[in-house]
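Example 3.2
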Amino acid sequence: MRHIKRAASPFAKPFAKRGFTLVELLAVIAIIGTLVGLLLPAVQVAREAARRSSCSNNVKQIALGMHGHHDARGTFPFGQVKYLQRYTYTDGTISFSGAVSGKTVVREGRTWMIMICPYIEMTDVYDKCMTAVSLNNNDTYGLAVARVKQPIFMCPSDVTSGKIAGTKAGSIRGFCGSYVASASSTAFGAAGGGDSLDGISFAQSKVKMSQVTDGLSKTTMLGECVTGPDTNVHGHAMYFNGWVGECLFSTQYTPNTTVSDVLQYIDDYRPWAPTIGGSTFAAYTRSMHVDGVTVAMGDASVRFVTNSVDAAAWKAAGSRDGGEQAGAIE
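Structure, written as tokens:
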């Protein structure tokens, strides 16, 4: 059969592949950029919310450890042992006394963190610390457990948490974390951190629940701190070598105050953790969260306290028996 070839229509257009014009490409890029710009803040907010939730879980577990110590020993753990002091437990009662010759029974340098370890599944840390005569000076430098970072004591939002203090001085003062115990509503006082303060855990303290007459749910027990990423001799939340209140905080000023902490040997100034030297020591709650800090109350409840909390209410919350008629903290 003979095929008849049809003539091409004079109106037909040849087929051609067509790409994006420069204007269209720029428009697509602009739209994608706008979407990314809208999405990133939401992702960052979600990540910080997750970190803050993890921080709250840490504080809750530590707070339960504080209660575990009270159940076993009859008191909340002391904030720290003063320099060149020792302590003993007799029938569940703690007593403190000065050092003896040669420091053979000195237990200085220990802090509340070490004392609650048996109640938060860290008995090995407690046992190793108890074998050292003193956690000050050379015993800490040679204590390997002091150089081990403990995640439960590190806030996920604080990238400087977990530093090992002292390497710049050629000696190891140990792991520094994110959480500190509530010592007072005032400054700590002179060297040793002050042993007659009005909070729950301070130097040589042995506070019982029954002595928190302002109410456990109204009295702060734990808070947060931040530290500079330096490796100087000391650091905030220096758990293995308590000295002048590095593991404690005061409610004298509201969270994330611009008022500088006053501590010894922390000479690396950071805007988010201002610290100066002095003789009337004090430290305040700070965090890397947005607009506040995570706090545990004496009843082990956990809450987020904003920077704008009423100053009088916050100060009153640091006192266990002041009888202040202040409002709630939030």
